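Lab notebook, bench 4. The sequencing result for the construct came back, and we need a structural model before the next group meeting so we can plan mutations. Quick request posted to the team channel:

Model the 3D structure of this chain.
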Amino acid sequence: MTRFPLGLVLLVLLSLLVYLGVLHRVLDRLRLNDRAALAVLVAMIVGSFIDLPLPVAGVTATVNVGGGLIPLGLAGYLIWRAGTPLERWRGILAGVATALVGYAVGSLLNRGLVEPGGRFQWLDALYVYPLAAGAVAYLVGRSRRAACVGAVLGVILFDVFYLVWLKLSGVRGVVAIGGAGALDAVVLSAVLAVILAEVVGETRERLAGGPALAGRPRKLLQHLRRPEVRREEGYRDGTPQ
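Done. Here's the predicted structure in token form:
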């Protein structure tokens, strides 16, 4: 029996949680409402079955709609809705750092260190790369939005870098941007990065007595408030009513 992709399983689970309203608070921090988040998740599920060919001479290249184009669009939206210019740059930097870590992890797993019977044989790239990517995306991005952007961009940039290397070196190869196992990596990395940002960030905020307020834009502070508090105070879409 063919294994059902882990990324699709997780997307379906997230869709159910969004539909049930369980992830409302996390989505609010990402500047997404339940309807928009559900639409993105469903589009990723449907788009995961669609591969678009890329006209690159000498290289068989495709981009997956659900694992490449839609996550890239989501990352662009999160960069646009970032609270500060610094957060935007952190998200982009996190993407580059995550791609570099992906290269390092790939080198570790593919250059003889995972020989049969060797000490690294238990490592599985499907889990190792998302773990490393999610952790790096959070450490560099810091915020929930920047961490999610870093995780998504990192996986996609890694495929793009590989495509560029094949083209410049003249080596024939196959690149599936956001396709095959990359969908799993995109979803797992993004989810892990957001979870780390939510758990670690929330813990730090609670220990500090709440988020830092001094010198932060008013619009950003409105979104830092809990959703239920904003509703009680009469805020709608971040604007006082």
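Residues 113-119, 227-241 have pLDDT under 50 and may be disordered.
Will bring this to the meeting.
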